[in-house]
Specification:
- This protein has helices at 13-23, 82-87, 89-109, 143-162, 186-197, 215-225, 250-260, 284-289, 299-312, 327-336, and strands spanning 2-6, 28-33, 53-56, 72-75, 114-120, 165-171, 173-175, 199-202, 209-214, 236-241, 247-249, 265-268.
- It is α/β, with parallel strands linked by helices.
- The protein has a domain at 2-177 and 211-247 and 278-297 and 341-361: NAD(P)-binding Rossmann-like Domain (Rossmann fold), CATH 3.40.50.
- A seven-stranded parallel sheet has the order 3-2-1-4-5-6-10, sandwiched between helices.
- Strand 5 (114-120), helix 4 (143-162) and strand 6 (165-171) form a beta-alpha-beta unit.
- The longest helix has 21 residues, at 89-109.
- The protein is globular and about 55 Å long.
- The relative contact order is 0.16.
């Protein structure tokens, strides 16, 4: 089985590649990434070693020949959270929606069987009338969420037009340790703050709801999606991915972190304005469709995973919100240094120089550089 993973050099990509490698040992895994966050490695092990090939390319520039002979595409590439979506609203639509649909169209033309899209439960926005299921109305409140809705609508049309199987996995809020960990996710942030400052500051009154899912359970869902059974009426599928028991109020998340890191103090703002993104999610459909791929990591285990992972890399930075562990900072720093253009393309003025490898290194490893200084500096 030949699989392309776009956006593989992000937070989730290394976990997905490793999981697929273990689940399907003889699979050929090809990563495609523009390397915006390639340098955001924690620890001393390159997290991309599960791949057979890595292509450095902006997904907006992908051509059809990439998908020749490919069986499945796992599409993770995206501008990945609300702050970045707000700052780069037009680019978020361009990458998360327009480029996604272009990539899906090219994959379908090349007869790719399965296209898996990393969507988000954030598309439900504010929902105070019970848990949201797939048939409920959507209420995207941010550029990021709107781009996911737009992509889902377009992917349904691509699937109907071409017959390609498309699975939109509406993931709960991610958490867990990764070789490219992000600390701009609620649970990861709480653990990092508890470890480095002994305190968690909850900006809301603690009552907003968030569904949560560990990155390893996200990878299990993706494994299911690349080979799920398909009928004519399920050629396109949008499904919430998580577990009913993993809908938590923010105060519960803080309390779980305190239980794992004794002595942590919790500050809650009882006078905070209502959080417009409070929602619970119904995961019954995923439970019925994928009984063998259900989430396995509990809240307590997720907290311990992040805690132990951060301790393992010697993390103790009370100023981490100003570091590259916050993805917005990575883009802002690169823009400030002139290394990125406003459309988040690399600002290089040298001609493209493809790297030609000797036959002995092919196809075990191949690189397609869009910029010839990436190996020295990809900040």
């Amino acid at each position: 089985m030949k699989i392309v993973i776009t956006g593989n050099m992000g937070y989730l990509g290394p976990i997905v590649a490793s999981h697929i490698r273990n689940a399907i040992p003889d699979a050929i895994l090809i990563g495609v990434d523009s390397a915006l966050f390639a340098h955001c490695i924690v620890g001393d092990i390159l997290p991309d070693l599960s791949l057979d090939a890595q292509i450095f390319k902006d997904i907006r520039d992908i051509e059809a020949d990439l998908f020749e002979g490919i069986d499945a595409v796992i599409h993770l590439a995206a501008i990945s959270n609300d702050p970045m979506g707000t700052r780069f609203e037009a680019v978020t639509e361009e990458i998360n929606q327009k480029a996604t649909l272009r990539v899906a169209g090219l994959a379908a033309e090349s007869h790719v069987k399965h296209f898996v899209f990393a969507s988000s439960c954030s598309i439900y926005g504010f929902a105070d009338q019970g848990a949201r299921s797939e048939g409920d109305s959507l209420n995207p409140l941010t550029a990021y969420a709107r781009s996911k809705v737009g992509a889902e609508i377009g992917l349904r049309e691509v699937s109907a037009r071409t017959g390609m199987t498309v699975t939109a996995l509406r993931f709960a809020t991610a958490c867990g340790f990764s070789g490219r960990i992000r600390l701009d996710l609620v649970l990861n942030d709480f653990v990092a703050s508890a470890l480095s400052t002994g305190r968690i500051s909850v900006l809301s009154d603690g009552t907003p709801w968030r569904p949560l899912i560990h990155v390893s359970d996200m990878a299990r869902a993706i494994e299911w999606a690349i080979s799920r059974p398909v009928s004519d009426d399920s050629r396109f599928l949008a499904v919430n991915v998580g577990a009913d028991e993993s809908n938590f109020q923010v105060a519960e998340l803080a309390a779980a972190v305190r239980a794992a890191i004794p002595g942590t103090e919790i500050d809650i703002n009882p006078h905070a304005a209502p959080d417009g993104r409070s929602y619970r999610v119904d995961f019954a459909l995923y439970r019925s469709l994928a009984p063998g791929h259900q989430p396995q990591v509990s809240l307590a285990a997720a907290v311990e995973d992040v805690r132990d992972g951060l301790k393992g890399i010697g993390f103790n930075d009370p100023d981490y919100r100003a570091s590259d562990l916050i993805r917005f900072n990575v883009l802002a720093n690169a823009l400030g240094k002139g290394r990125l253009l406003p459309d988040l393309r690399w600002a290089h003025d040298k001609p493209r120089r493809p790297v030609r490898l000797p036959p002995s290194l092919q196809p075990a490893l191949s690189f397609n550089f869009d910029f010839d200084w990436v190996a020295q500096d990809v900040e």
